[in-house]
Specification:
With 569 residues, the protein is of the alpha/beta class. The protein has helices at 44-61, 97-115, 125-131, 145-148, 155-164, 186-194, 230-247, 291-305, 343-366, 372-378, 395-398, 403-420, 438-442, 454-460, 466-470, 501-513, 549-559, and strands spanning 11-19, 22-29, 34-39, 67-72, 91-94, 138-144, 170-177, 197-201, 204-206, 222-225, 252-261, 267-273, 280-284, 311-317, 333-337, 386-392, 422-428, 446-449, 476-480, 490-494, 524-526, 536-537. A hairpin with a 5-residue loop joins strand 11 (252-261) and strand 12 (267-273).
Length: 569
Amino acid sequence: MKSNNHTFPWGIYIGDLLDGNDTIPLCLDSKQGGFCVLFDDNSEKIANNFIENIALKLFEVIPIGAIQADIFDFGDVRFSSLTAFERLKLYNIAYEPKSSKHKFEALHELSRNRIHGFLEGYNSLSDYNKESDYIEPYHLLLINIEDFVYESSNTREIKRFFDTAFKAGFYTILFGNIAINESKSEIIEGMLSYFPKLSIENQKFHLTKELFEFADMLEEYSFNAVDDNKEQIVQTLTSQYKQEEANNSEQDFLSIPIGKAFNRRDTVYFNMGRKSSNYFAFITGRSGMGKSTLLNNLIIDIAKKFTAHEMVLYLMDYKDGTGFQYFDRHPNCKKLFLDNSDIQASVELLEEFNHIMSERTKLFKENRVSSIESYNQKNPSSPIPYILLIIDEVQELFKSKEASHLTSLLMQVTEQGRSTGVHFILTTQNLSKFSMGKALMAEIPLRVTYQVNERGASAIFNEYNIRDVQTLKKYELIYNANLGQKEDNIKCRANRPIAEESEIAELIEDIRAIKDEKDMLMPVIVKSKKEEGEIEDNSKGSASSVKSREEEILAKLVRDGIKPNGGLR
């Protein structure tokens, strides 16, 4: 997002001081990093309304999309107006201990990456965003103190987080019942000491010297807490967001941060779509350099960011069936191929893709549109998902007797996939041991490489760009979106694993737990060609398996008198 005064406000508006005919806006110094609201049982609703109004004011003054709310609260929905931003992916809530733990760890990791990365030399994220061409979003943390603290809480880690939270772009509002002041918990006592406190007792606000040095003078004034028309604010912001989205005709369907550029300031994103003009990608790197971590991070982030109505994954693993085994319950994955000897499965899947592209082309013609973007914009209530195929260790395909046919099928995908929303990512440890063909490589401008040998480097980048690849160290990569031309190299320190391999299955379960059943798939596990009639569908026993969006579209076609051969699959 292009920067346009994306600085964080100097003050947090909380209400007005009244004295006769005088009205004085009252703001908290934002550099305090946040504040704490404590309330008695009789004042909880007032406190909730007060906090939500402040949050909405922040959403008003910071450009839409540049701030998101992260909630830690296990009870009933407390901030109902803010939930409207969930569908805009600007609101996220942890409502039980496990998701709270994972959310805090993710936010702490983000903070560390910012502090030790591009924020070096800056006082705060606000200062960075003031100068940067592309902004990093702020996070508003609304934390129920009692729910944030649990048995596995780490006092040291919590302290480390809040010590640098504001610098890293986090503004915090703690809240809880005033009785928490009597807690003997070391963690709670520590959290209460981080920020100045404001109390609400018997429905009356009490402003302290912690908040304002001149608090004694405020006794001469009456205080009216901020209390705007929340519904109107939400409608305005939602409309503004949608208008900006509609006006931006060029967007990437996939944009995931994968690391920091060597300048330690710029975040490097893995982009695919119209804006970047990247529709297909190639990833390579020697064993142990970090390629698998990158793939796992991409696949996990897709689970976090998209419903199965927005993006569908097909994962093919030719690495002894072990590379993708942790994603057997991935909510976006339709088929997971784990038999590294079944080359025919890839042929059949690519033939299926070509059929899907043909049927989508008919659908677009019927709707008088030319692309998946324009179709989904015209049919927002029934969009069709992007399809992304990831093949790990693709060299096994091109060393087989089916290599020529597979190349032809992939070429068809590159020709039609751009407009129909069918895309692929191919990966290998070394390109020097097989040949994909120059014509196919020419259709894959996005190339990401870790360290490889000279022959491997020359296969993915041009001859003048080999040295840069060979000098890469472990967990360093080059992101190049222009066919490997040297001048387009972006050297990058890759992000750490979102989860270790032993933790991926549990993380996927956590992601599934916060999604609606209707927004998820349960992967069909394809183990072997011989078992074609005995495919293990581990959706058996689950509450429900999402009905394919494309099956709905097929039904619509049939109702309209169009009879595609075989339907959309």
